């Protein structure tokens, strides 16, 4: 097989590639995927793989800082270290650049981004005394380029997709590589695809926007002949972790845990969703995303109702998700997880790290007379949750303690309104469309989100193929849109009298 066929095979057969500190190519794959042809191709294209996939070792790395993990990072790594390697935690983007691209200026801009932000040149490891993040001195960033312009149209796009998919779907080996992977694909004379893949342990949604806009600013500086701006932000990833340690003193932790003890119950986490199949004993990790858009007339109604209720879109959108979950489960008391940016302090504005943390919201449609009342309930829950912010693991610990023991709960649904994700980029001579690229992996939790774009609200549902079929995922999100449309047009009618709501989906036998 040639190199592009190897990349496609790796993406389609869960062949995970990494490099050790000595520059040796390492791979992990299911037994049935390891064929003589694969071994031969890996040996033949070792150098090209290390270069093109951006996973090569960093010889002579110089450690410049070492510090604690944030609570979010520590919890994420504890999950990662107890599950098989996968691309589940890859944050993968493809920038479709159309126009005239200056490759040297782009490389300079990306180099400055990595120089500014320590998280992008850190390893997250257990050094024997516990988990730490280790920052390395900046080394010049390489931007591997694949040019497919010489191929005929069908083959050209197929190979470009194969390269993109392989970059997105290769798991990071955090013990040996840095949490950033780059790849540029030249598709035709006026189109480039820039793949940016970051491990979630080093970034959140807000951080993605910071990185992209730093890159755009650096590109403009490079085109103008100005020196790159490598000024570090006020707070780096280690600084944030140390701030967390200071702010969550014993008294603060006790007081806030008391709030969560009264605000939540373990029962609200057990959602009896009508999946297509029961959970397998061992999850495969295979996932997919269903994408949709909120119709313009529905979005207008959502905005008008939110303005009338003197609230933002977030409580309205989240309350509608609560209504959908009630319809799907028959449960009037559900708990969902809402990612919160956690960037209230001005010094966190330019920090590239995982600063966001989940807020747990109890949505009780069984006690809310109308949708308007439910939106008020969710809004008050959001304010109270922010005032009593705690790492989610501590909240779970307190709930288990209150119940006298039991398994740690997990919110079955995470719902996000990503208003802080700014994907509009100013790149002279280019139009840039930022696309979320599927990694082919999934977490146990259903992840639903809405992103404000220039053309309206764009939505997605990430789900595990172990549990849901694509048709079911689509029907659930179609139902969510029906809830939004109906509830915002009849917000003051009793919830049980709302018309046009989706019927519950029968549970699998």
Automatic annotation (TrEMBL):
Name of this chain's protein: Condensation domain-containing protein
Spans through the membrane: none
Gene3D superfamilies, A to Z: Chloramphenicol acetyltransferase-like domain, Non-ribosomal peptide synthase, adenylation domain, Nonribosomal peptide synthetase, condensation domain
Occurrences of domain TubC N-terminal docking (ranges): 4-51
Native species: Polymorphospora lycopeni
Residues annotated as domain Condensation: 68-500
One Pfam family from the record: TubC_N
